[in-house]
Amino acid sequence: MIIINNWKMDASRCTLAHQGTGETLRLGEFHFLLLEILITHPDTVLSREFLIAEVWKNRVVGSNSLPTAIHALRLALGDDSKQKEIIQTIPKKGYFLNSEFITYAENESVSQPVSNDVERLTNDNKESEIAEADTIPVVPARALRNKRFSLRGSLGILLAIVVITATLGTLLWSTSPPQVNHPEGTQLKYVNFPDVTHLKIGYMYEPDTDATSSSAIEKNWHSIALNLDALLAENNASMKIYAYPSMNKLSLDLIITNRCHRNWQVMLTIRNWQQDGDKLNNIISKHTRRTLHEMPACE
Amino acid sequence: MKCQHVNKVRALLMTLFFSVLIFSGQSIAGNKIEHTEQVQYDMKSGEESIYTVEVSESHDRILALIAEVSPTLKPYSEFHFTPCLKKSSPDSVAGTYHLDSENVEQSDAHMKQIASFMKLQNLSVQLTELAPGEDLLLMKQNNMLITVNTTDTLDMLATCKPHSPS
Q1: A90 band by pLDDT with thresholds 50, 70 and 90
Q2: CA atoms of B31 and A240, how far apart (whole Å)
């Protein structure tokens, strides 16, 4: 969990939640991505060209889009308009984010914001059609309605429910399955390719985000898995891969076991991994092959 | 003859005892990883650097040795951490690694930066058990994964107590 100047980032919802007041701000996707990129390079001056390339990729961007987005982030983070201490401008060079304002805390169970106020900052960036097209529509915040129960009128019904629940609970107690706790933290899941026998692939995901990841990974990784499987079969070896994809970086952990059961590990971090699937395939194959060749020969 | 018989039984028992010891030791240590490399590759620029990494983990300390091997060969830098981990699910623990001390090669600008960063912030980590004695370590600040061999179980690793107010 990343907290910047008391604002907790929630990547799944592109929001910032204030740790003290509970106020929630929703950022546009580009604004949130810009903040993530600045945070992943704290205290490093990032050029305008780099930021535009990273945030807007190959899209055509107006000359004011980046300064406007930086301005919006400063407003969101409570960065004083004169001091500009959190996101600093380096004239003719670019911007950098001051790491003194970043705190990394343990993940905690998702707490509901105290306030239902949802503001939208991307409106500041009306000049940028792209940003507007990509921002997430704001869901109007609804005040929670307190339902009042009349105990007098509902007493009989409540008693009946309690009696029925208690009876059913007693009957089902002996046969009820063990309670499954809601998972906390990043979870590990394995992908199954029936035609791949020398390779085991697992990936890390955040709870509540895995509705479609499994099928997406199965689809995108099948050709890579087949290539690696052939390479491993050729060398009478096996491999386990653990993957943790993020927006601009793919982290892989390869455990390669050769035919005499020796284990070597390659922690492979690939930046800008989404650019080219074939190239990604080649990089993973290259380092698998290299490692297999560098491992000591079996006696 | 009796002594010989007793000696044979004793030898058999000793062999069995040591076999059990070796077997249980292997099962606790998991599949031992003999060598670890870290490769960083940028698909846009084509830049690549390779490091050799050694991590040893127990319930009260972590030692990490890291050295760049490509494109230049540099001496090892050394980092000592104290873990503070709690059980987060039946098969994982999560918490922080606090940098206690480091011995960084002064000519290695990259390692100096990393050391400075770790003096400012604890590393947020999660360990997921893959097999007995084998855990997958996720470092949350940089999203990196590494499999580590450990002699301690998750319950033994999850020993962090809340800080008492000073």
Answers
A1: confident
A2: 12
